[in-house]
Amino acid sequence: MKVENCVALVTGGNRGIGEGFVQELLAHGASKIYVAARRMTDAEAAAAADDRLVPIELDVTSPEQVAAAAAQCTDLTLLVNNAGAFNLGNTLLTAEDEADIRQTMEVNYLGPVRMIRALSRISASCPASAERRKKGRMNRPEANPLKVASVLSSL
Length: 155
Fold this sequence. Notes:
The protein is an alpha/beta fold.
C-alpha cells in the first residue's frame, strides 16, 4: 500500500496504537492525516504536533458523527479503523450483563462497518472510481481508491 502523499483518517488516533499509526504515516510521507478521537480536545492535542494533522471529533458508535466525518473527509484515500473498546478483565463470555458486550460490539464491529460504509460512498464518487467504471474494472480489488486498514477490510 502506498502511503506517500496519501490522505488518511485514523480512528482513535490520539493515543496508544492509533498514535503509533499516525506517527508511522507521518514518517512515510502522508500529506494529511485526520486524527479522530471521541473528544475534540483530545484530537486537537494529538494534532498539535504537525501541520499535516487535522483534528476531528469522532465517536464510531454515533451514526451522526460518522456521517459528519465522512462529509468532512472528502479527500480521504486511506482509512485506519483503529478505534476499539476492551474492558480489562471482562470478556464477552464472562461479562455480568450485556452492557459490556453491547459496547464492545458497537465499537469493535459496528464502528468499523459504519466507517467503511460511509467512506466508501465518497470513494465511489471520486474521479478515479469513475474512470475505473468506464474501463469495466470496478469489481477488482484495486478499483476502489479508498484503502481500508482493519480486520473488517477482508469482509
